[in-house]
Structure formats: structure tokens, C-alpha cells
Amino acid sequence: MSKTNKYLSLALATVLFSACGGGSKSSQNDGKGSIDFAKYFPSESMSKAYIMRTRTLETPKTTFRTETIEVTGKTITTREKTKVIEEVNISDKNITITTYTDIDSKHAKTLVHSMYRKIDIGDKIFPQKINSTTTNSLGKITQNSTASCIVKSKEKKFEKGDYLYEGDLLKLECVAKGKVIYEIKQDILDAGVANDLNGSHDTYDKWYVYYKKGLGEVAVINDNCITNVKTPLIVNDNAKASECKSKPYSYEFYVEQ
Length: 257
Hints:
By secondary structure, the chain is mostly beta strands. It has two helices and 14 strands; from the N terminus they run H-E-E-E-E-E-E-E-E-E-E-E-H-E-E-E. The protein has helices spanning 3-9, 186-190; strands spanning 35-36, 46-56, 59-72, 75-80, 83-90, 94-101, 109-116, 118-119, 124-135, 139-160, 163-184, 199-212, 216-223, 249-255. The strands form two sheets. The protein has a twelve-stranded antiparallel β-sheet with strand order 7-6-5-4-3-2-14-13-12-11-10-9. The protein has a two-stranded antiparallel sheet with strand order 1-8. A hairpin with a 3-residue loop joins strand 9 and strand 10.
């Protein structure tokens, strides 16, 4: 699954979120751009392998995943193992991306983004509202955010650590901002624990996605700033470096097999 959409539908994250809602054509993208975004998806059927390097608080972790991509005419279908996780349909003017979330359930949720295929630097794409609610031992946690990506630049090279990509690259800058609301259980509040968590907190999360022409997504770079280790869901990537008490990250790198 494209991590852009995974993060947005998480997805994002995935990193990034568990979302519901849908995308639409951005008013800032008029379909008359000089860049054909369709050319930055896989041009032929292939298998792709990715290395994910993450750190939550101070614990680093490395995992791997593979995708099988089938290109049939103007349709690009991506599978993890045997399950379809994303389908891209390309027309003369538009690109429609259908992402299937909760793929392990019998009733997979879907998220649809429709956009013009001709874009320009500075265009906003993948707009989405993100709403999710989880419950744990502390109480209920609600995330309400909006997310979108800006077509940042065209690049000839991107390098981070041991990973180098060269050629015709497209860089997206993505931002999710909104609120995380903690509703702490009353007995915990009465005990004087987690009082500083209760209530609404602003979040601002920024990450970057790189596409290579004919290959699709090759890298996702998400460096985060946590100013309070008690609230790891509250990301503030606008904070000064000196204010970051923890710097978790989530990277994904395409590797040739």
C-alpha cells in the first residue's frame, strides 16, 4: 500500500492513523499542471520490498514487508500476500486511489481519493479528515485531524543513511494537524493520576514521501517531536529541537530484490 495513503488512512500513518472519511479533488489542483502524476506509479507488474525502521520513544525496530503489483491497462492493483490493499485507476484526466484498510477483517473498510493526474509544484493533494477513537486502561482517546500533501519539488536524488535513490523523483510534503482528546476515567482522576493528560491537545505532524517515475513510492521520512513523554500521541513537529523530550521516527525504504 502506498504509505502516503496508508498514513492518511491511518496514513498516513501508520505511523500514522486509523481514519475514516474520504478524499476529494482539491480546489487548489485545477488539472492543468505540467507534471503527470500517473507516471510516478509503477509502469509494469512487479514485486517491491520495503524496510521499515521505526523508533517509539527510545526503542528502535526494523521490519520488512513486500508488495505484489499487477498493472493491467490503466489499473494498478497492489497486494500484500493475497489480499488487495490498494487499487489505482487512471483515466485521461483523473487518478482514483482506493485503499482497503482493516484488511484482516471480513468487512474491510475502504478509502477513496480522486484527483486530477496533471499537477504542479505547490498543488495540494490527498486532502482528508481523520477521526478515530480508541479505548485503553486510562479511558477514551479521540483523534480529530485534517491531513493533506503538497507537491513540494522534483528531485534528481534523495539519500538518507544507506539508502540512495536517483532519477526522476517527486517529493511530497504531508501534514496532519488537529486535536487529540483524552477522556480519563474518573477513578483515575480521583486518584490524582494522569490529570495533565485529560482534555484536548493540539497536534502537528509533518512527513515526506518520495516517488520515482515508473516505480512508485520509494521512501517515506517521518521524524517526530514529542514534548511530553506521557503523551506519545501528541506530536508537535513545529516545536524547537530543544523542546523535544523524545524524537520517535518512522522511515520506509524501497529496496531492490
